[in-house]
Each structure stands twice: as C-alpha cells, then as structure tokens.
Design brief:
Elements: H1 11-23, E1 27-29, E2 42-45, E3 49-57, H2 72-84, E4 93-99, H3 110-118, E5 121-124, E6 139-142, E7 162-171, H4 173-188, H5 197-211, E8 221-228, E9 247-252, E10 255-261, H6 263-267
Length: 269
C-alpha cells in the first residue's frame, strides 16, 4: 500500500499501482530520498529497494501510410529514464512503459524493444571480400543506435543504471484461447472457416466454453514483460514480477530468450 501523500495521475501510473496491489508488493509513490532532487514514481521494498519510473505513450492516429522507424519513441523514454535515475546508481532502477493507444509503438515485440535497447534488429552476413559472395549463414544481430551500448562496443556500455525495461500490458486471455482452438481446427482442416465463417466462429466459441467454463472472448488480464538490461550495474531481482501473466526476457547461454513465463501465460501457448 502506498504511504506517500502524492497520488498517481497518469494511466500508466494507475495501472502499475493496480499491478503492485495485486502482487502485494509494498511500495511508496514518489518517495523522497534525502540529498536527492528527484523522486522516482514507485519505490518497491521487497527483498530490498527497487525503483521504478512510469512512462506513458499517449494515443495517436497515424498520418498517412508507409514505412516508419519503430525505435525512436522507445529510445526517447529510455533517455528520459536514464536522466531521472542519475542520482540513484546504488539501487536497481527500471523503466515501466505503458502504451495507451499509439499504433506506432510496439512494446510487446522483442525485436523492437530489445532493438531499442541494444541496436536496430538486423542480420550479419560473412562476406568473402575477394569474391563478394556470402561465406556463411545469415545471423540475427543488433546493429547501430542502441541505448545500452554502441554496436560492436559492448565493453563500453553507457547505460548501466537502468536495470530493465518493463512493458505493462493486458493479455487477451479470451482471444488467445479462441485462437488456439481455431488453429487446432485449421491443422486438421485447412478449409475450416472459409465456407461459413459465422458457423466456424460459433463452433470455436462453443468448444472454448466446453474447455474453459469461464470463457469470455473479451477477457483480459494485467501482466508485465520484463526486458533485462544485460549490462546493468545492478540487475533487477528475478524474485519480482513472477505473476501468472508475466514474462521475462534475459540472457542465458549467451542468447536473449524468455527466462520466465507465468503459469497462466504458459497455458495459453
């Protein structure tokens, strides 16, 4: 429960507070720290103090059509978080991101969020400089413009204060259950739904209701995705954000991968 006299006002702050309450994490909103000029949005005291600042992406209607760069909007928030936490290098500090309806922001896509952190997602190809031909397979890679370190210079990380980015989002439980059954039907009948879409829709809903007595297509559940910063000075404890609809990405075996998936989330796969 919050103990500060300040109160949250943004959609992201309110939603993150709902999450903290649901997880029974003790916290304080805009806690004052002696000798420091800034106040992080949330100070969570569970297994030690962890600090969180919440950044919202406001709704926006796209103008026109065509390609766009998916990274700058997220990188701007990372830079703002880095500035906010300059005085708090002795704590694990994380940036909580909430998209309130901006179609150009993709906070659930690993290639976008991790790309914003480490460099534009791309591929590398070994080339024979004599013949100009490829000498091996294409390899996924993070290229330039990363906010945690510069491409090819991981030894000189320049954003070690941020322990993680955290995507605050709703999981479409009902829709995922529906899609899972639909794909099962398609796997045995490739023409399923082509002749009578309404009948196929009703059939899948009926099957979902049999499997899940509480089935509702519109059901959504609050959860987070944690994106660990591989070069963080102080890692964010993996004892935090272990809710049933939470997910965590981190480094294992020198690869970025999912290192935690909540029990309810795993059931939807």
């Amino acid at each position: 429960m919050a103990t500060s006299s300040a109160v949250p006002t943004t959609a992201g702050e309110l939603l993150f507070q709902d999450y903290l309450d649901a997880m029974h994490y003790p916290y304080e909103f805009e806690k004052e720290f002696p000798g420091k000029s800034k106040r992080p949005d949330y100070t969570v005291n569970k297994g030690g103090i962890s600090l969180f600042d919440v950044k919202d992406f406001d709704p926006s209607a796209p103008k026109g059509y065509g390609a766009y760069d998916p990274y700058p909007r997220i990188r701007e928030k990372i830079e703002a978080g880095r500035e906010k936490f300059k005085e708090f290098k002795e704590f694990p500090c994380s940036l909580v991101l909430r998209n309130n309806g901006n179609p150009l922001v993709h906070l659930e896509k690993p290639e976008i969020v991790l790309g914003a952190m480490y460099g534009d997602a791309g591929i590398t190809i070994p080339i024979d400089t004599t013949t100009g031909t490829a000498r091996g397979d294409f390899t996924p890679a993070f290229l330039g413009r990363g906010k945690m370190f510069r491409y090819g210079d991981i030894e000189n990380a320049h954003n070690t204060t941020l322990s993680a980015l955290i995507t605050l989002r709703f999981v479409g439980v009902g829709q995922r259950r529906f899609d899972k059954i639909w794909q099962e039907r398609k796997s045995v009948d490739k023409d399923f739904g082509k002749e009578d879409l309404d009948a196929a829709f009703a059939e899948v809903c009926a099957e979902a209701a049999r499997r899940y007595p509480d089935f509702a297509l519109e059901e959504k559940r609050l959860g987070v995705i944690v994106w660990e910063n591989a070069v963080a000075r102080i890692p964010l404890s993996r004892e935090l954000f272990t809710g049933p609809y939470d997910e965590r990405w981190g480094i294992e075996d020198n690869q970025q991968r999912i290192v935690f998936s909540g029990e309810k989330l795993a059931e939807l796969e």
